Amino acid sequence: MAGEVAKEETVVTNVKILKKSNVKPHKPLGKKECQLVTFDLPYLAFYYNQKLLIYKGAENFEETVEKLKDGLALVLEDFYQLAGKLGKDEEEVFKVEYDDDMDGAEVIAAAAEGIEVADLTDEEGTSKFLDLIPCNKILNFEGLHRPLLAVQLTKLKDGLTIGIAFNHAVLDGTSTWHFMTSWAELCCGSTSISVPPFLERTKARNTRVKLNLSPPSDAPESAKSATNGEVIPSVDPPLRERLFKFSESAIDQIKSKVNTNPPEGSSAPFSTFQSLSAHVWLAVTRARQLKPEDYTVYTVFADCRKRVDPPMPESYFGNLIQAIFTVTAAGLLLAQPIEFAAGMIQQAIVKHDAKAIDERNKEWESNPKIFQYKDAGVNCVAVGSSPRFKVYDVDFGWGKPESVRSGSNNRFDGMVYLYQGKNGGRSIDVEISLEANAMERLEKDKEFLMEA
Fold first, then answer.
1. Rounded to two decimals, what is the model's pTM?
2. Residue 341: HSE in the Cβ half-sphere, 13 Å Cα cutoff
3. Using one digit for the tens of pLDDT, what is the confidence trace for 213-232?
4. Which residues of 225-243 are buried (b: 16+ CB within 10 A; e: fewer)?
5. What does the pLDDT average to over 10-26?
6. Active site (catalytic) residues
């Protein structure tokens, strides 16, 4: 079930790695494989998707680690693809492979007993998270020879963190939090998970696409050896990250303002997401001090489960997202009231129906392009994650998280992560990565901060 390999204690800054082990599904499953489909493949050159859950409590760390590993072994019976590896068939089509001889998921036990929960919940950037989440700067196509799921359990002075890295070519945010809540369910004593994953991803798309991958020039040698073709250069600009917390009252104010004078042709009242998106897009555009003629792009990674034909269940396991773009000149955006921006975002989302999704897939399949994580557009604001995800319901038996954050992977100038606020209701946490000077201006923008 959980094959352990004790390691010598190593020190990474103030985090000590105590032990590394592998966890397989609790019972043998035999050989299984699943083709990666058009919705999955564009993310092969992204980095592993990282999440950090910060908890108080869980008094006995060693017992907690074993409990979490036992629950992981059980949940991997259903989510066995996360215990496998990436592979290619004879036609160079990517797939997920699993058999009982594979190592399974990686679990790291660590200690950082000089760090308190408050040190992490007060962190506005991500620098303190680096040593608490595995797979920093590991590209998804390295899943050819790395675990598709890695978990780091770190003991704190007054709690623990669960740092998770998922191969983004295998699953999206909806599937990530389905897995996490299922794992927690089993750790709390359930004998089976309430909603099994729908694993037949070829039901959403069944086109076989052959790929030649090109790693970025700054990719590790292990990634380069797994690919072939011309190397894509990658240069990351210096960024700052910041967490902005919008209370239920602030969200209501933003939504009320946006819906005061809806433009002609708007299909419905603007949603919370559309209203907050417009608020963020305008503020970031102001902070960047763009020229009036400069284009700015708003990008939403939209869940397509209910948009495809036939619709897929919410429990569909894999990637079933597509990037939706809307673009305008910065001067025009800033000269108009906020409902102009909200209307553009709403229109782009409404138009992204089954026909548009199919056309996008056919276009991509005729000329496959592997995106880098920062290819969302010029002067972009790109939204990942969703406040709909019930991240604070991930309770393994000692209480809900104190905070849920993203790691340092896949961040670029304009990347935004939205999370349900800790206080629940309609509160939303907004994680933003921006060029340092723009971030300094954003932090002083009273209109954005909802200050009088």
1. 0.91
2. 32
3. 654 444 444 334 333 433 34
4. ebbeeeeeeeeeeebbbbb
5. 83
6. 168, 395
